[in-house]
Amino acid sequence: xxxxxxIIAAAVMxxxxxxxxxYNIVFIGNSITFGATHQAPQKTNPTKYCxxxxxxxxxxxxxxxxxxxxxxxxxxxxxxxxxxxGVKAAAASLAEAYPEAQMVFSIMLGTNDAAIRPKKSCWTDxxxxxxxxxxxxxxxxxxxxxxxxLHQDPYFSPNMEKExxxxxxxxxxxxxxSYWEVDKALAKERKNVFLGSDEIFAFxxxxxxxxxxxxxxxxxxxxxxxxxxxxAELGKLWAEALxxxxx
Length: 247
Fold this sequence. Notes:
This protein has 247 residues and is of the alpha/beta class. The chain is 49% helix and 19% strand. The longest helix has 20 residues, at 170-189.
């Protein structure tokens, strides 16, 4: 009996220690992560809800949102006129403020990679994989103990077309799902890379009219960005996946 009590006490102490650990989380993404179409995206983007849900689970998270509208995985590569410098600065500021916290990079990229634009077609799986690998490798060089969590992209309606020439069709929809297979492979190959929620695409496919903002394009009403309610659900899905990875 005494041995059983000791085992239970040790388990409780272990769980408490995990719950009390601090995390520095840099969210890397596109307009969905930014909170596009919201009246106050700085307050209602999915990262805000994610951190809130993590806190409710007893996990302390300090976060920076590097969600940038219209950007692909290639826009975050080192050596390009993109957002690599911003990601580095965001991580550095967290590391300086909370030096004992575990560094985590929460990444959801792929939607814009799958878009068709006047000067580009969908990025292939190989291009996407190369970009993601370079981003992870480059950040790992700076933060060797970092954890990377790759999230599935939401569904979007395959009728998005803008006057700028950008569009997303059935091929784009198929491609973004293929990127998830790339993410799966990366997680399988690397011990510090984990998969986020695999429920995101299906959730928004089923609930897009309720959870996404209706927008007008050349082909009529399309759905691409989660609305405030959808962002809350997305943040919760991120948090649930992150909590599993961090524990």
